[in-house]
Amino acid sequence: MQKELQKVKIGLIGLGTVGSGVFKTLQNFDNIEISKIAVRDIKKHRNIQGLDLSLITDDPYEIVNSPDIDIVTEVIGGINPAFDLISTALKNGKHIVTANKELLAKHGKELFTLAQENNRVILYEAAIAGGIPLIMPIKTVLSGNRINKIEAILNGTTNYILTKMDLQNASYNDVLKEAQELGYAEADPTGDVEGYDAAYKITTLATIVFGKRVKLENVYREGITKIRSQDMKAANDLGYKIKLIASGKIDENGKADVRVHPMLVAKKSTLAHIDYVTNAVSLSGHPIGDITLSGPGAGEFPTASSVVGDILTLVSEIGKSDNILPMMHCKHTVDADVINISDTINKYYISISARNNIGVIGKIGTICADNHISLASIVQKCVSDDNTADITVITEPVKECDMQKAAELIKQDGNKINSLIRVQI
Ligand code: NAP
Ligand code: HSE
């Protein structure tokens, strides 16, 4: 007689872009049963083949309190009620799969502690770079490395916008709308374009890579909303592309520098060639040297690939021991000492509109020199009918606080700073 297949039971909380992709992909696995699905609006029409409407509830607590469910998959996003749902599920002995980067960045410490106390695992491959396998490789095959530098493109929406503005001269608003329609953007796209989403992701990524907890409030953040098409053109002429870069560095004394901001990256660098929704994470360390992982960073199926991968990993381990997947547990106990942005060293691109008076370039040069800023180049391109000159400056590596002070003095001298963007060193 054929033995009946023991199915692992999944509760799916959320059936939007990611949840739909997870549901559709899980249809290919007959050892997994989706026992319940929670949504916000039970009446919403859902064009999903094979969806059994009797499984749908608008009470996600039915899932986290169900004694039958082994794994809770949370793909609703946000803090409330996701935090309480995951906490309740852990206390009820469920393993968790989540794509919720905001929740991990803000409440990772409490949730991983709770998981430890309840001997349960939280997997979150989809939360950092969509479809790119990243967390599992870092915690397993790369775990013998001491990684001291991360440079990454972690937000698909902004990379899509910047690429289309650069290559197709498209307008910011049109491309943002397109990214929303394609399912890349967050429910509120401010999170993407102002750099919050990338800041959540680098907070968690830097924490696991450096083995010290990075606090979100110590991560410097700047979005892409002030980037002008003129900056993109100027960057191209100078041999650069503009990307929203999430980065982390840790020095030999354990001081970390973790941030998100637009950056001019050299056209010859790997990240300059990461276009549209693609994400990429470059890691440098010993003994590996430099490695870049890249792939689709957002969207229904790439994200579902990571979520389903986490579910299958748990399914293959559940029941084997009391302490499954020890490599995936949270190991660090200390907080990272994070340097303030004003103490960091950067190169800068500055676009200035100045009155084209005699000595204008000399004055800008003097202000920079007085503030310990050495210039790599200063170019005056054109003078408009109203006698305004467009001046583009690239500095050598200088201290952020000196640059900010010089920028203020340049403004006080009657000039307009159109843009001040850091340049990859
Ligand atoms: P979404 O399309 O807005 O879907 C959210 C889903 O959650 C919807 O089905 C919604 O129900 C449901 N929901 C919201 N509040 C709920 C509540 N209180 N109780 C029950 N269900 C609730 O969002 P998404 O793009 O799939 O993103 C989900 C998560 O994945 C977020 O954490 C996001 O940051 C993350 N993520 C997204 C992507 C991506 O490319 N989209 C990539 C990586 C990670 P209704 O359908 O009834 O409205
Ligand atoms: N809104 C996010 C992005 C989804 O555009 O990258 C993937 O995390």
Write the layout of secondary structure elements.
Elements: E1 8-13, H1 17-26, E2 32-38, E3 56-57, H2 61-64, E4 71-74, H3 82-91, E5 95-98, H4 101-117, E6 122-123, H5 126-129, H6 135-139, E7 146-153, H7 156-168, H8 172-181, H9 190-193, H10 196-210, E8 220-221, H11 229-238, E9 240-250, E10 255-266, E11 278-286, E12 289-296, H12 300-317, E13 337-338, E14 345-355, H13 360-370, E15 375-383, E16 388-395, E17 398-399, H14 400-412, E18 416-423
Parallel strand pairs: 1-2, 1-4, 2-3, 4-5, 5-6, 8-10, 10-13, 10-18
Antiparallel strand pairs: 7-9, 7-11, 9-10, 11-12, 14-16, 14-17, 14-18, 15-16
Helix pairs in contact: 1-12, 3-4, 4-10, 7-8, 13-14
Tell me the fraction of residues in β-strands, as a range: 25-35%
How many structural domains in the coordinates?
A: 3
Biggest beta-sheet profile: 12 strands, mixed
Architecture of the largest domain, according to CATH? Answer: 2-Layer Sandwich
Distance between the termini: 67 Å
Q: Report the CATH superfamily of the largest domain.
A: Dihydrodipicolinate Reductase, domain 2
In terms of structural class, how would the helical and strand content be classed? Answer: alpha/beta
Counting H and I runs of at least 4 residues, what is the number of helices? 14
Could you please say which CATH topology of the largest domain applies here? Dihydrodipicolinate Reductase, domain 2
Characterize the overall form: elongated
Helix proportion: 25-40%
Low-confidence runs:
none
In this entry the ligands are: NADP nicotinamide-adenine-dinucleotide phosphate, L-homoserine
Rg over CA atoms, rounded to whole Å, is: 24 Å
Instruction: Give me the count of strands.
Output: 18
Average predicted confidence as pLDDT? 96
Question: What is the name of the CATH class of the largest domain?
Answer: Alpha Beta
